[in-house]
Each structure stands twice: as structure tokens, then as C-alpha cells.
């Protein structure tokens, strides 16, 4: 993060404060719980090197989940929803030259979070959290887009905290 000072706050607090500032400026602000969940998700993905696999086929993964156990589906739906949240929010340019458009991914993200609600997933014991989050998903992605525009991430590697090693050992 360009302006992140580790001595001042945690990464989650950093993301929360940035998103909260932007959220207060929009015409129809999102509930603080949505901003907080988004901050947690951004923190998780800032540390993840396996994220952002465009060839993964998030729609296909979503459909495949229906044949899994409830516990496996919870994880898959969360991964799909969170991946789309970060991907569409911070890296919307990913869609350039693709056959699928933003609304396709937004709908997959909404469905993933909505399915989590039916699997009795909870977030800090907030009733119907994932159903409500799903219904505001596009607005949440738009908030993350505002954040992404203010940081000008060129690519996913700039976003990562623990970047993959590119050093090659001579054989």
C-alpha cells in the first residue's frame, strides 16, 4: 500500500478507514457492516498469492459447488463471492477483451452470497447478513472501484503484501 504505515494501524483498519471515508461521500452510503466485511476481504486477498486466477472459471466453480457438501459449498460460495468482489472492485479492467461483462460477474457474486445465506452462514451473528450483502453487492463493488481508482493499482502484484518470489535459481 502506498500510504500504509504499519506502525499506525492494522491492514484491516487501513482498508476500513479508506472505504469508510469514501462511503461517507456517496449519495446512498452502505451499512458499516458491509464496509467492515469488505475491509476484511481486502485484507485477506492482500495476503493471498493464489487469488486472481482469471482462468479459474468462477461461474463454473459456482455451478460445481451444488454437487458438494454443505461445508464445501460454504467455502466455495465465499471464495467465489469474495473473489468477484475484489476482482470487479479493484481490477475492473480485467474484463477488457473478455466475452463476459461486468453484470455477469455481479450476478454470480450476488448468487454466491445469497446461497451462503441459505447454508446458515453468519457474519458476526448479524441476521440475514449475506442476503443483505447480496442485495447491495453492485453498490459494494462500486465503492471498491472508487477505492481502486484512488490507488491506481496497475495489476494484482501491486496489491499483494507478500509478493511471489520472482528470483530464479540457476541450474
Task: Describe, in plain words, how this protein is organized in 3D.
The protein is an all-alpha fold and 171 residues long. It has helices at residues 11-23, 32-46, 58-64, 70-90, 102-118, 129-135, 137-151, 156-159. The longest helix is centred in the middle third of the chain and has 21 residues, at 70-90. It is globular, with a radius of gyration of 16 Å. The relative contact order is 0.16.
Brief overview:
This protein is mostly helical and 171 residues long. The chain contains eight helices and no strands. It has helices spanning 11-23, 32-46, 58-64, 70-90, 102-118, 129-135, 137-151, 156-159.
Can you write the helix and strand succession as a string? Answer: HHHHHHHH
In angstroms, what separates the terminal alpha carbons? Answer: 35 Å
Question: How many beta-strand elements?
Answer: 0
The Rg value, from CA coordinates, equals 16 Å
Helix content: 55-70%
Low-pLDDT segments, ≥5 res: 1-8, 163-171
**Average pLDDT figure:** 80
Shape: globular
**Which class of secondary structure composition applies to the elements?**
mainly alpha
State the helix count.
8
Largest sheet: none
Q: In what range is the share of β-strand residues?
A: under 5%
